[in-house]
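Hey, resending since the last one bounced:
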Amino acid sequence: MAILRYLATHMKRRELIKVSLFASSALAGASIVPVIASKARSNSVSKTKIFEHGQYTVWKLASKPGFFFKAGMAIDADGAPSAYHPENKGIDGIEHAGEPGNWWALVTDNGKPDGKPVIQSKSDPNPGYYISGTALYDETKKRTDPKRYVDSRKIPYVVLPQNNNEEFLKLTNIKLGDFAAVYNTSNKKLVYAIFADTSLFFAGGIEEYRFGEGSIALADAVNVSSNPRHGGVKEGLFYVFFPGSGNGKPRTLAEINREGAKLFKQWGGVPQVMALV
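The structure tokens again:
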């Protein structure tokens, strides 16, 4: 996963948990069409704080499932076959994939962070590039198949923090494959996404929770600079997650849009977002 660009002064380390369970989506098709939402009237809402860490606060509405927070967006290239290259020619810098002995974003020969990164063959999408994985994966495909993983260039996905004891994931009951909605408060673009990757950050040797990270496709859809090396934005994104909504598997773009739209409407839609911001 990509480091938060606007917090580059902090050191990042991602610990791969069950690297062999890296995921992919060989997902077909349809183009991503962001929803252009109109401004809604503000109204009184009752919300409950469920998590707070530094500048980030995670809330839930008292009468509805799901949780939400406001943050910026860093760009995660993981899962894209062109993400990383041995000569650092990938769309993202190799330093964001880890280092020898601790590869957190690459598929390795032994399935562990200390293994040797696997390079794509002539029959793969990007021969000579490393295979980059995501935490959500297609279990029907081999671990060394680049199509096993959710392609950041094609699928709008979101990233959530996973510390060593998975405190946040357990607290919110969110699981890989669940759906989300992301609303850009600056340009009113709304996009539906899937929770497909996790992150672990360290700052000064202490675990940190960082919120606000998404795939290249997600950034493009909400009109945020999507370059994994220096893109992203510091603020202005509203994220809504729907725990228990997925099946733990990668989904097609059509499924993400259909399920996301239904869940977001039930939650209250853009009028609810506007009442909260």
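Residues 1-31, 36-43 have pLDDT under 50 and may be disordered.

Sorry for the duplicate.
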